[in-house]
Every structure is written in structure tokens, then in C-alpha cells.
Write a structure and sequence with these properties.
Elements: H1 3-17, H2 24-40, H3 44-57, H4 62-98, E1 101-104, E2 113-116, H5 121-124, E3 129-135, E4 140-148, E5 156-161, E6 164-167, E7 178-183, E8 186-193, H6 199-207, E9 214-218, E10 222-226, H7 229-265
Antiparallel strand pairs: 1-2, 2-3, 3-4, 4-8, 5-6, 5-9, 7-8, 9-10
Helix pairs in contact: 1-3, 2-3, 2-4, 3-4, 4-7, 6-7
């Protein structure tokens, strides 16, 4: 059971059992002292819950209500300061990771895209390879790109080294994310593993950067490629940037929520 819930239940039972005894003011003081002890212990959220209970259970303890409100506002301000510190550190991380990418937004893009510098066009246009896709929301997925003389009609990929392996989800041939084209004697296939279909593969690559990783395109025929060091690094850096971007949104929401809590105390 969560500490805040346990504290609330304990308070409720105590007040139901004790029908007479100390005044509301005295009990409010006791509750504020408990909150102070929680603060010393570093249990800020528990302390806030204890202070909030003063206005619920001791509405006649006027002076203590003011004290509890002021203490609560100060605790929220401290939480905001901590969150802002986390946000600044996270933004610094994002800034350093962004140096590994080219930011681009074309007329066809709804969101700004992060293109790994290690997968630049001159390295990728004439080969079969695994492409990293990351946008400004932190949404990350892989795309398998095949170029060859024969159709693979591939719908999935598997990354492996020996018995260790991870497989993507399947993107059927009639799916818009499974694209095929032809130019002269060459066949082109591009399969995008959105909506979490490449998550297992991404984490497998990041967790095994020192293995001799290979990728097989799975279709009516198989096609094998060796993951280059810069491909593995591009996936690793993209996942780190994706996590940092999503973490920034979470921290910003924390700060906004704490600020709203303070405004409600006014």
C-alpha cells in the first residue's frame, strides 16, 4: 500500500475511534509536527498529504490551517526547483545528443526529423541498410531498406549473433508502410516498423553493441546484411535522444502540475 494512502487511512480510523480528547487545534499541531518529521526524512509527498489532512479533519484550527497551507506551498516550490534542475540537466543532454543528428523538416513531414549523421545519404543511397527514424516528439522506429536484382517481399527483420536474437513485428505486403518500387534492373523495398514493431530490435541492438550483429530481411527470400559500427551507434544515440525528449515532456508536466497546486492554495 502506498505511504500516502496508508497515512490517510490511519488518520481516518484515528478520528473515528477518538470521539473525545484533544481539541482540533492540538491535533492539528500534532499533524503539522508529523509533517515536519516527514520533511526531515525526505518524504516530501507524504508531508504534503499530512498537511492537506489538516483542512479536512481540523477545519476549526484556523491558525494551523494557515501554517499548513504556507508549509505546503513552500514544499511545492521546492519540488518545482528540483524539477527545474532536472529539466536543465535533461536539456543539456538533449543538446549534446542533437549534435549527432541533422534536423530536417520537409514539406512532407508533420514533425521535425532527426537524421543520424552516421547514416548520411552518401553512405546509404546505394546499399541495403537499416534506417533510424526519430522525430521531435521522441517517436523512434526502424526502417529496413533493400536494393537488389530480385524481389524479397520482406515483411520483418531479425537481428542476431549466434543464438541471441530479436525479431521485429510484421508489416504485411498490403500495408502502406511496406513500400516497393523498381528502377531499371533494380528492385527497391522499404518497410517501416512503426507503433512499437521495432522496439524489441532497437533495445537488442543497444544492449549488445559489442556483438557481431547481423540483420536478415525476412520475406519470400532472405537477405543478410552486417550491421556496421556506425549503424549500431546511430541506433544507440537515437534511443538516448528519444528517451531524453520524452523525459523533458514528463518533467515539464510535473512543473506545471506543481504550479497549479500552488495556485489552488491562494
Amino acid at each position: 500500500m502506498k505511504p500516502i494512502l496508508k497515512q490517510t487511512i490511519y488518520l481516518l480510523l484515528s478520528f473515528l475511534v477518538v470521539s473525545c480528547g484533544p481539541s482540533q487545534r492540538e491535533m492539528a499541531v500534532q499533524q503539522i509536527n508529523k509533517a515536519k518529521q516527514s520533511i526531515v526524512s525526505g518524504d516530501t509527498l507524504v508531508a504534503i498529504a499530512q498537511l492537506d489532512s489538516v483542512k479536512i479533519f481540523f477545519p476549526k484550527a484556523n491558525v494551523q490551517l494557515v501554517v499548513a497551507k504556507n508549509m505546503t506551498a513552500e514544499l511545492y516550490r521546492q519540488l518545482i526547483d528540483r524539477s527545474k534542475d532536472k529539466l536543465n540537466k535533461n536539456d543539456s543532454l538533449i543538446a549534446s545528443l542533437e549534435l549527432k543528428f541533422i534536423k530536417q523538416k520537409t514539406e512532407f513531414d508533420q514533425y521535425t526529423q532527426y537524421i543520424p549523421k552516421r547514416q548520411s545519404l552518401d553512405r546509404s543511397w546505394d546499399r541495403s541498410f537499416l534506417q533510424v527514424n526519430l522525430d521531435e516528439r521522441g517517436e523512434l522506429y526502424l526502417t529496413s531498406n533493400y536494393m537488389g536484382k530480385d524481389w524479397l517481399e520482406h515483411t520483418a527483420i531479425r537481428i542476431y549473433d549466434g543464438k541471441l536474437q530479436a525479431k521485429s513485428g510484421t508489416v504485411e505486403l498490403d500495408d502502406p508502410m511496406n513500400y516497393r518500387s523498381q528502377f531499371l534492373d533494380y528492385k527497391w523495398e522499404k518497410v517501416a516498423y512503426l507503433n512499437g514493431k521495432s522496439d524489441s530490435v532497437i533495445h537488442f541492438i543497444v544492449e549488445h553493441p559489442n556483438l557481431d550483429l547481423k540483420c536478415v530481411f525476412l520475406g519470400t527470400r532472405y537477405y543478410y546484411i552486417l550491421l556496421e559500427e556506425y549503424d549500431i551507434q546511430a541506433v544507440t544515440e537515437a534511443l538516448a535522444l528519444s528517451n531524453a525528449i520524452k523525459r523533458r515532456k514528463i518533467i515539464a508536466e510535473e512543473i506545471k502540475n506543481f504550479q497549479q497546486k500552488i495556485s489552488l492554495l491562494q
